[in-house]
Amino acid sequence: MATDDLTADAAARRGWPRPFRPRIGARLGYLLHAGLATNRLYARVAAWLERRPRAYAAFTTVERVTKQELFGCRMCGQCALPATGYTCPMTCPKQLRNGPCGGVSASGGCEVHPELPCVWVVAYERSEQAGHGADLDLLQRPVDQRLRDQSSWVNYWQGRDEDLWTAADAEGARPLLHRELGLHPVGGVR
Amino acid sequence: MTLRGAFEAGRFAVTAEIGPPRGADAEAITRKADLLRGWVDAANVTDNQGAHVRMSSFAGSLLAMRAGVEPVMQLTCRDRNRIALQSDLLAAGALGIPNVLLLTGDHPRFGDHPDAAPVFDLDSTQLVWAARSLRDGGTLASGREIGARPDWLVGAVENPFAPPRRFRARRLAKKVAAGAEFVQTQYVFDVDVFTTWLAELRDLGVTERCRVLAGVGPIRSLRVLEFLRHGVPGIHVPDQVVRRLRGVPADRVAAEGVTMCVETIQQLAELPGVAGVHLMAFGYERGVPEILERAGIAPRPAPRPAPRPALTGSAPGAVTTEGLGHAG
What positions does the domain Methylene-tetrahydrofolate reductase C-terminal-like occupy (chain A) (predicted)? Predict the structure, then answer.
């Protein structure tokens, strides 16, 4: 890897978001996900990690390094990869979670970084090719900014990711907007 | 002559655009409103469009209302987090602004403050969702209940021409599922591509739930043509349009651009599922009546009398490009 690439990677991690093309195919992503799918063992491991700050920090570092290398992960703590063809929407300069903005160039380039492909153009292609095209129709709820730098794997195993998105026609899936994180809105409960 | 009224009556709707001034000049809004009054159902008041600092869309909307033009208050996710966005939506409701248009917004990188922090706490779909939750559910994004509910119409934008094109109708379907009641599109210079997108919308059942206003505007100089082709992300100008404008003598380009705009409106009006047009004529607001008249679109019912003689807009030949942005 050239030094320029390293610099760009470092900038992608620390600075404002830049589009990142995933280093593994979408199908492999779905396979890996199957290996990480929630089960009772993982749920217990997650609960154990949350009681031990140093173990949690070490575990989160492993997650960060892995997902940064593969997907340009920015540690939002609420992973959308399974619904985006394993293309991280948080690397979009506008951090859009529901699809591309209107500024994509005719060749599919990002509006802000025209030399890089739009995250959502890549997500669309990968999802379609992997037979998961319909995932992009899911309505993604707003990011919970409190979860940044947390382990999304732990959050997922603890069942906190279940409300990240909802089907567009799921009228029964109220409340549509806020997520049930077991974290009450300030002032919302007396 | 309200936008809601036009939609309910099934009348071909017309919206235009009022870009607030770079300065504390209330007259600048009034002057543009004077040119549009009676010809449009409503006018968008842009929110620091192109990430250039202007008077706020909220103040501009109030000034437009005072001048007798119904505003569509634009609100972008670029500069405000979800607290400020919802606060502004409530303010718009309290002061009777009848329409809001919710968009992602241009990135600050391209504005006059490229050193500013991009916010993007919500995306446009989530903002539409939040707006409908406020209005119909009486709750904030947090779930907390609000008092009196606002009563504006909720609009969104879409760009049928930007990649991934096969996803653009589905992206709008998401916004409509989240609560968008009308949509304005990016400039339509390629009616064929637009027609394909519209057919996809109809297949998804979107046109039954959401009024589609097709974006149009005259290209009045070769300089603007080049700017639209290369300076604004996401605008698609097909080759036949370029050939046609370049094929006329220099002094005829402006007239040819206006004629093309008229023809485009006429073509779009024939398409099933098009509820109206959104006419973007930056720096050429004085030409809006002529364009609409030539396209066979009558003035709006019961226009209010103008309180003062209409002033001319910017000088002929002056080109305003700063107001241009993309439909995000």
Answer: 58-145
**CA B220 to CA B217: how far, in whole Å?**
9
Amino acid at B242: V
Residue in chain A closest to B157 (alpha carbons) equals A102
Q: Which residues of A touch B130 (CB under 8 A)?
A: 142, 177
- Cα-flanking dihedrals φ and ψ of residue B5, to 5°? -60, -45
Q: What is the pLDDT of residue B328?
A: 53
Give the CA count within 13 Å in the CB-facing half-sphere of B76.
26
Domain ranges of chain B: 3-294
Q: Does A15 touch chain B (CB under 8 A)?
A: no
Fold of B3-294: TIM Barrel (3.20.20)
A residues 126..145 contacting B (CB < 8 A): 136-137, 139-143, 145
Closest chain A residue by Cα to residue B187: A102
Cβ pair B217, B279 in contact under 8 A: yes
Q: Is the pLDDT of residue A14 over 80?
A: no
Test the A interface: residue of B82, B85, B122 with most A CBs within 10 Å: B122
CB distance A105 to A112 below 8 Å:
no
ipTM score for this prediction: 0.91
Q: How far is A80 from chain B (nearest CA, A)?
A: 14
Long-range contact list for B303-309, CB < 8 A, 24+ apart? B303/B1, B303/B37, B303/B38, B303/B39, B304/B37, B304/B38, B304/B68, B306/B34, B306/B37, B306/B38, B306/B68, B307/B67, B307/B68, B308/B34
Q: Which residue of chain B has the CA closest to A120?
A: B164
Q: Which residues of B touch A96 (CB under 8 A)?
A: 104, 120, 123-124
Under DSSP, the state recorded for A145 is G
For the stretch B112-132, pLDDT in tens is 999 999 999 999 999 999 999
Q: pLDDT tens digits, residue range A66-107?
A: 999 999 999 999 999 999 999 999 999 999 999 999 999 999
The pLDDT score that the predictor gives to residue A3 is 43
Q: Does B162 contact A102 at a Cβ distance shorter than 8 Å?
A: yes
How far B309 CA lies from chain A's nearest CA (Å)? 38
